Amino acid sequence: MSATDTTVASGELGADLLAIVDRVVAQAKPGEQVEAFVSRGGDTEVRVYQGEVEHFVSAQAEGIGIRIISDGRTGFAYAGTLDEAAIAEVLAEARDNVQFGTVDEWAGLAEPDGVAQTAQALWSDELAGYATDRKIELAKELERLTLGADSRVRVDDSNYADAFGEAAVATTTGIRRWGRENGCYVSVSTLADDGDETQTGFGFSVGRTPDMFDLGKAAREAADRATRLLGATKPASRRTTVVLDPFVTAQFLAIISSTLNGEAVVKGRSLFKDRLGDEVAPPFVTLLDDPTNPLAYTATDVDGEGLAARLNPLIEGGVLRQFVHNSYSARRAGTMSTGNAVRGGFAGTPGVGALALHLLPGTRSQDEIVAGIDDGLLVQSVQGIHSGVNPISGDFSTGAAGLMIRNGQVAEPVREFTIASTLQRMLMDIVEVGGDVDWLPMRAAGVTLVVTDVTMSGA
Amino acid sequence: MIDQDVIERTLGTALRTGADFAEIYAEDKRNTSVGLDDGRVEQVTSGRDRGAGIRVIKGETTGFAHTSDLSETGLAAAASAAAEAASRGGGGVRTVALTPAERRAVNEVQQYPETIGKTAKVELLQRIDAAARAAGTEIVQVSAGYADSRKRVLVANSDGLLAVDDIARILARVNVVASGDTGMQTGYQSMGRTIGWEVFDPASELFVDVEELARDAARQALVKLTARPAPSGSMPVVIKNGSGAVLFHEACGHGLEADHIQKGASVYAGKVGELVASPLVTLVDDGTMAGEWGTLAIDDEGHPTQRNVLIQDGVLTDYMWDHIRARKEGRGPSGNGRRQSYMHLPMVRMTNTIVLDGHDEPDDIVANTERGVYVAELGGGSVNTASGDFVFGMREAYLIEDGRITEPLREGNLIGNGPQVLRDIDMLGNDFMMGNPGTCGKDGQGVPVGDGQPTLRVKQMTIGGTAS
What we know:
The structure holds 2 protein chains of 2 kinds. Chain A is an alpha+beta fold. Chain A is 22% helix and 36% strand. Chain A has 11 helices and 18 strands. Chain A has helices at 15-25, 84-98, 125-128, 132-149, 215-227, 246-259, 262-266, 327-333, 366-371, 385-388, 423-428, and strands spanning 32-49, 52-70, 73-79, 153-171, 176-194, 197-207, 238-244, 287-289, 312-316, 319-320, 341-342, 351-352, 357-359, 375-383, 395-406, 409-422, 430-433, 449-457. In chain A, a hairpin with a 2-residue loop joins strand 2 and strand 3. In chain A, helix 4 (132-149) packs parallel to helix 5. Chain B has 3 domains: 4-29 and 45-100, no CATH class; 113-152 and 162-222, PmbA/TldD superfamily (PmbA/TldD fold, 2-Layer Sandwich), CATH 3.30.2290.10; 232-464, no CATH class. Chain B has 9 helices and 23 strands. The radius of gyration of chain B is 24 Å and the shape is globular. The interface between A and B is large, with 77 and 79 residues.
C-alpha cells in the first residue's frame, strides 16, 4: 500500500475501495474491533522465447480480508471477490471465528500513532498507459542483446512484467488509508554451453517505468554469470575469507532480519532475543530498515496495518539497537509498533518483517576489495539458503558457486560446495562493507560484503 | 459450477481470433485454517476463492486471462482478453461440443472437512501442543497449524474435453523449539492427505496419529540440543526410508519435466534409453496413490493422472508432460499439467515421486558403512536443472561410525550433482515409505507434491557442516 489522501471524496481515486471498508467497519457491534482490508491489482507478464511470444498473461484480482477482535479473541476471514453477498459472508465468518480464538491480553488492532507519512511517488501514469506492443518489444530486445553478448549463451526465457495494485484499510480504532502503486521489471535466464557442460545465469532490471531499465546491463550480467562458471570444479574443503556479491549479501541480510523480527523475539524464537544493546557486529556495521528511501525497490509510505512506514536503525555501530514490530508484537514486548506490519494481500492477517534493509556502505569497489585479498572466494550465487539456514539456532550452511581469489585477482571458477558458519559468527566476522550499494528487486539492498573464517565444504 | 452451454459459448468466444486451442479452468474453493502458537489459538481463518482462468493457444503463443466473475459475461470478457493476448490477427469461427467425462474416484472421501465443526479442529491442535510439551522440560515453544480445503474443479477445452473433480485436503504441522545450554534447536513434523477428516480415525487405512507426530518433532529438537557441528567434505550418506525422496524430486525429477527438456535446459535432455542411474533405481511419478498429498483424479488440464515410470532399473524411460509440450511432440499428455490456482497457467509438474523398493535390509546398509552420515529427515531443497547441481537441508542427521549410528549432528546442507548422485546409489533397502507432504515451487507457483523412498545409501556426497 502507499499514498496518502484519507479524505477522498466520492468519484475520486480510491473512493470505491474506501466505501467498501467504511461500510464493513460501520457494521461493528459494541465491543468489537473491526479491520477491513481490500485490494485490487493486476499484472502483465510477457515471456519471449526465440523471438516469439511464448505466453502473454493479463491477470486481475481483487478481494477482502476482515479481522475482528472481541474480548481479546481474534477471528479472520477472506474472499477473493468484492461481490456484496461475499463480503457479507466474510464478515459473518470472521465473527463466527472469533469464538474459537484464545483470549490474548495483547490482541488488538493498530491505532494512529501520530507519525507522519513520508509521501512517495509510487504510481506512474506512464506505466499504467504503456502499450502492449512496446512491452513485447522490450522482452524481445533483451533476448537479442543477451544472445549478442556472448556466442556461448542461449536464452531460456526473456520476460517483461508489470504489476499495479491499490488497497484500502480501515479500522474501528481510527485507521483509514488508501494507496496505490505500480512497477515493472525485465528479466532474462541464460544457459551457457561448453561441450557437455551447461551453466546458468540471470539478469534483470527494475523500474517505476520502463525508461528506467538498463537492458544492456541485464543482458551482460546474464551472459557473464553463466559463462564465467564454465569449467568450474569442486574445490577442496577449507576455511577461508568470502567476498559476497551484492545479490548474495541481500539474501544474507534478509535472513539476518528474520532474527530481528519482533514476533520471533516475543515468542522466544530469536537468537538475539535477549541481546538488545549488545555488540553483535564490528563498529563499522550499521543495518537500517528504511522504507522511506525512494531508491529502495520496496519503498513504501504505509505498512500493512495502515501506520506510516519509517526509518528504523536495527544495528548501529555494531550494537543491536532495536527489533521491528507490528502493533501486536510491540504491545506484547511493551513497546510501540515500528511500522513493520507486512501483509501478503487480503488473504491473511499482518505479520512482522523488515521492509527495505540496507547496510551503511563503505567506500571501496568490489575490484578494490578483491585486490587486497591474497586467498579467498568470491561468492557469485548461493543455492538452498532457505533450507540450510536455521534462524532460531543460527546454523548457516548453503550451496554456493563462485570464483577463487588468488593474489588479489579472481581466479578459477568453483561450484558444488557449501559455505557454512553461524549467523552470530558471520556478523562478528564481517571485515568490510563495500561502497557499491545495488538496489535490487528485493526487501534488502545488495552491497559487497567480506566475511572471514567461513568453512567451505567441497571434495 | 458453470452450465455446459455457457462453457461451450465461452470457448467459442476464446477461439474467435482463430486460435488452435482454448481451455477453461474453473475452481470454487473453501478453506479453513487454525494456528496455535505458544498455547494460544491465534485465530481461525475462513477463506473462499472462486474464479476461472482461460487459456488460448495460437501457434507457439499462449494467451491467458482470469476472472473471479463466473457469470457468462465475466467469462466472455476473460475469454476475449485471452484470445486478444494470444493473437492480434483476425480469425474464423469454431464451435465446441463437449463430452462430459465420468468423475474418477482415486480418493474416497468419507467426511468432507467442512462438515466438521471448528471446535474439533482447535482441539486437534491442542492435542498436538500437549503431546509436544509433554516430551521434555526443555521444550520451550510449540506452534501448530491445521488447514483444510475443499475445491471443486471444472476443466473444459476446445478438443471437447469436459472433466470435473472434487478435492479434499487436510494438512497439519508442528514446530517445536527446545532450549538448552547450547542454545535453541528446532523440530518439525507434518502430515497431509487428500481425504477427509477420517484420517484422524484410528480405524482408517490412512490414519495419522498427530500426537505421535508431535512427539517426533519434539524428539528431533531435543536430540539436536546435544548435537555437534556437522562434518564438512565428501562421505557416504545413508538416507532413512520416507525421509529423503526430496532428493529424487530435486536430483532428477525437475530435470525430467518436458518444458526443461524441450528448451535444452536439462542434463537429461536426449537421454531416453540411456543408463542415467544406478541399475538399482526405478523412479516413478504416480498421481494415483490413494489419499497421498500429490494425488489427483485429473490434472489441472483435465487429463486423468497416471503412474508414469521415469527410470526403470537405471534406464531413462520417459519424461513428464503437459498439454503444450505433449502436443509439440505429437504424443499424449502424462497427467502432469498442474497449476497453483485458476489465476495461474499450467505447466509440467510432479505428483507423487517415488523410488521403488530394492533388496537390501535397512540395518545392513548402516552396518556396511564404516564412516558416514545417517540422515533421518531431510528439509527443503532446490536444483539447477541445467547443471544438475542440487542442495537440500538436513533437518535431523547422525554420524555413522564403524557401522553404527552414533552422535546427532547440527543442521547443514547436503549438496551434490543429480546425475552423479543417481549413479552413486550403491545400496537400496526394502522398506519403502512415503515422506512428509511437500509444496513444490516452480516459476513462482506452489503445488502440493508427495514423495517416498526406501532406506538407501549414496556412495559419496558433500556435507556442508563446519567441523573438519
